[in-house]
Amino acid sequence: MNDADEAAAQPVTPSSSPRLAEQRFQGVGVSPGLARGPVFLLRRDDESVPDYPIRAEDVPSEVARFEAALVTTRVQILEMQSKIADAIGAKDAGIFDAHLLVVEDRAIIDEVQRKLAHELRNVESIYRDVANRYADTLSRIDDPYLRERALDIQDVTRRVLMNLVGRGHIGPRGLDYPHILVAHNVTPSDTAQLNRQLVLGFATEIGSSTAHSAIMARSLNIPALVGLHDALTLLQTGDQVLLDGYHGLLVVNPSEQTLREYEELARHKARLEAGLVELRETASNTRDGRHIVLSANIELPDDVPAVKASGAEGIGLYRTEFFYLNKSELPSEEEQYENYRRVASDVLPHPVIIRTLDLGGDKFMSSLHLPAELNPFLGWRAIRFCLERIDIFKVQLRAILRASALGNVKMMYPLISGLGEVRSANALLEECKAELRAEGREFDDNMEVGVMIEVPSAAICAPHIAREVAFFSIGTNDLIQYTVAVDRVNERIAHLYEPTHPAIIRLIKMVVDASHAAGIWTGVCGEMAGDIALTPLLLGLGIDELSAGASLVPRVKRAVQSVELSVCQSLAERVLEMDAPDAILAECESTAREFYPDLLG
Ligand code: PEP
Ligand code: MG
Question: Are strands 449-453 and 471-474 parallel, antiparallel or unpaired?
Fold first, then answer.
């Protein structure tokens, strides 16, 4: 169990209070594991600016954060100004000149810097106090012009604070004890920045199992649960809790009895994991000898050791966009090349499938300042973004091509909705190849290029697409959300997000059949691939490869090794005739239970 007993000595923890009654809050477990420690409540609205002490040596980095936030704010104001000028004319856009003056106001900036060194508190709290004092003073003077200036200061203050709080580390920097993070939401870029030594687990009010923050938490082995409604009201910083990511439970003030039960559960899980480690060097063949390629998904190069330890045959999905998040500038070709080359050489002789940039949806690069959209998952995302921002896309394609010289790199495009996008992307790839050739740089001219099938239109048109690509990888996370029209990160409608919906099963079957007819293979790299209740079904539908989070790979391997393909095929045949998601799930679970009851727990 991730434990933070030491943290009990921290002043914010109620360790000296009398034993409090146990309380249980039920959410949805999205990353398995157990964690125990004090809660840290992260409130991120601009009213609740974190306020904490810093050390003298932290002052320069606080100043740097402040300056970066001012630069970002200035860029945002200039962008708004030009948009308003285009829409309603330069005169109305003039209001932003006043805002720019506030951002550049030396009196405020100098005072913040002085107070930082003097008061040794974080820059957000100092800036808030200084700016508010200026605004207060102006608003009290009986002069309409000065009152307007006070409003300008308040407006700009809010923006600077959002840039400081939103783009900084998740949680205050001064928070240096292990804790359970509780927040309204944790974004994918937050998760990428989590300090794994300090964040023992997290619980959020909203979210879902296929949100990228949850996927990332599983990769990082951080126990997590979502859907803990009103957590920010019900819990307090310092509450001692036990987070059960297996069952989606948060136990506040766990009793001795509960702690004993959880210690037993932790021992049981550890025994199970130890048994699975032994499978590492074994082949993922079914009992009747069919080999299923078993790969792992990664989000960051740091995940590669876990892939190797898991016994996966390489990387079936490298979500490269995490390399772009949390950066103030786009990564250069050289940086990306180094990154991809390192991952590829680390997994040799196995392959790595690099997925091209999938920004948008729930993953944003704040420094790109992409326009807000009403329906981001249906909007300017992934390949759609790349085919317009060719400047960004070609840098990545060139970096991937250069890394392909190692011989084990494959590439795939996300969110393909039809053949046109595949052709456009491939045309850019050819341009990049021609450039590299002219520059005398090495690359693998035969690098396999596949597509993700995650949009129903692509699944339906799979026979056409199959003729022009080397493989399919089904992104079930998105395929489900687009097929049943259920936002994958909206916990309110999570009950409608059903992997065993008959439409999903039919689409998977159509895709597999189309690929096999064209002589190419199909894998699954969405979360369905790691769900061992569904392994027999996927095998029965003819899937050739499964790619799951590294921590899930050993149990998927055990599942594959336990089944007989012929039984899986008859399960798929039966299920294809069925009409209800629940009944299909029950049928799948019953077959899985026949083969590996212990694994299903
Ligand atoms: C998917 O959609 O299933 C997938 C693997 O891609 P992502 O989860 O990154 O959208
Ligand atoms: Mg996807």
Answer: parallel
Q: Are residues 261 and 369 in the same domain?
A: no
Min mean pLDDT across 85-89, 348-352, 387-391 is at 85-89
User: What's the longest Cα–Cα distance across the chain?
Assistant: 87
Q: Model confidence over 474-533: pLDDT tens digits?
A: 999 999 999 999 999 888 898 999 999 999 999 999 999 999 999 999 999 999 999 999
Q: Does residue 352 sit in helix, strand or coil?
A: strand
Instruction: Decide which of 272, 302, 336 is a domain's last residue.
Output: 272
Q: What is the CATH number of the domain that holds 253?
A: 3.50.30.10
Each residue's pLDDT tens digit, 207-230: 888 888 888 888 888 999 999 988
Give pLDDT tens digits for 226-242: 999 889 888 988 899 99
What are residue 250's DSSP bridge partners?
Answer: 25, 243
Phi, psi of 53 (to 5 degrees): -75, 150
Give the total residue count for the chain: 601
Residue 530 CB less than 6 A away from ligand 1: no
Q: Are residues 82 and 97 in the same domain?
A: yes
Q: How far is the CA of 475 from the centre of ligand 1 (A)?
A: 5
Strand 240-244 relative to strand 34-42, pairing: antiparallel
Task: Select which of 432, 461, 525, 568 is catalytic.
Answer: 525
Domain hosting 32: range is 3-43+172-272
Assign residue 83 the CATH number of its domain. Answer: 1.10.274.10
Whether residue 456 has its Cβ less than 6 Å from ligand 1? no
432 belongs to the catalytic site: no
Q: What is the pTM of this model?
A: 0.75
Ligand 1 neighbourhood includes 356 CB (under 6 angstroms): no
Is residue 525 annotated as part of the catalytic site, yes or no? yes
Q: Is residue 199 part of a domain?
A: yes
Q: Are residues 109 and 237 in the same domain?
A: no
